[in-house]
Amino acid sequence: MSQGVLGFKYEEEKHDTGMTGLAGLPVYLDLMKAMGLQEKIGHHLQVKQRGWTDAQMVSSLILLNLSGGDCVEDLSTVQKDEGFCKILRRVEQQGMRRAERRAVERRWRKERWRSVPSPSAVFRYLSAFHDADQEMNRKEGKAFIPVPNEHLRGLAKVNQAMAAFMQKRNPQKTATLDQDATLVETAKRDALFSYQGFKSYQPLNTWWAEQQVVLHTEFRDGNVPAGYEQLRVLKESLTLLPDGVEQVRLRSDTAGYQHSLLRYCEQGEDARFGRIEFAIGADVNPEFKKAVLTEVSQTDWQPIYREFDGQRIRTNQEWAEVCFVPSAISHSKNAPVYRYLAIREPLGSMELPGMPQQELPFQTVEVDLQRYKLFGLVTNMDWDGERLIHWHRERCGKSEEAHSVMKGDFAGGKLPSGDFGENAAWWWIMILAMNLNTIMKRLVLGGSWVSRRMKAIRFSLITIPGRIVERSRSLIIRLVKGHPALELYLEARRRIMAMTPVYG
Description:
Structural class: alpha+beta
Mean pLDDT: 91
Number of strands: 16
Low-confidence stretches: none
Distance between the termini: 61 Å
Oligomer: single chain
Radius of gyration: 26 Å
């Protein structure tokens, strides 16, 4: 009987073949070993006492993220990959003495047959990250952030170790921190409504631009404003920066326009880093508009250019310095004085005769019958205005691109539970997977791989078919003849082997 329109059929193999569809994923196991990642997970979490270890649980979910799975149930698909599971079992026992192998076996009440945890085991594990006592404080209309329990704090420490490993292999003296929140839409019953009008969670992320990693994340309900307690989050992020960092700069959108945050940075209140340079979006309120209209003349406006194919092309945007002191700090003689920049962009005709004026999602100002979009920027840096504007906009290009990667390329866009703590753990583990992939791209693969998105990584590196062959107590992963991934794997493994384990 024909199965379809074309002349081919699908059939199940009658015998085990040792095939895998994830021939590139073991290279990540190599990297995790070189980083000492499993040891760090076991040291900082200590959730599990029997059965699956913390390292096995978290590593399985990291590998799930890398392979393209976006829900707990996808672990069942990984379990069906006979070849990859064979590699996992061998890797787990590598280097173990007989007594150590027996100790691992004693963790199980029954004989273990799975290579990755079952979905039900993962849900039980994630429940340890949830604090039910704090649930009553999560209410619509009230900004509340549950205090992370010791296990969630353990995931943060694992991520800190990963950032330290990256820093030791790629030292950077400057840390440009981009702080921004992102909405994760969900249909979970207990999720709260965001300012956009849909149920969501709204994690606040701190992106380290020079290393291209997420340094810190705080999982939050959707009704918590992006800038809520942002200064506290900045202080926590600063403690996570590894040795070797000497200077910190901060970028944020208008959510970070808080005078307590600006003052902390300008007055050098951080004991380790002192004065922190910043560029933050400023609120375009009536007093700022008035300053733009009264203090800035037409000749003060300077064009903004962009680079394209090595040429500077003038845009339709302009910038100008604004003499502006917010009323919120004008009463204090000791208040810091900041630079304010205004950016304007002319609007075309958006209104029809006889129609009421349309309400726009951005602030505008009118000069000589020309209506402009108006944006503000506050800084304590002495850079040229145009350079500063372009530097601040790099936040939009990279840290916000990272949000798309978190929710689309990895499993951050599909949360597993209605319990806040379980979702927070799921989000943190996604961050670990994302940072591990960054380390792979930047320290191991290099070159054009650094800028590739996860779709290209999976297509060319991870989801390659191979056959697992056992020979002389060794496992061999065989690819089809002439496959270009073979040289890639060999070179990647050589580079990883050259990395002496660094535990930072």
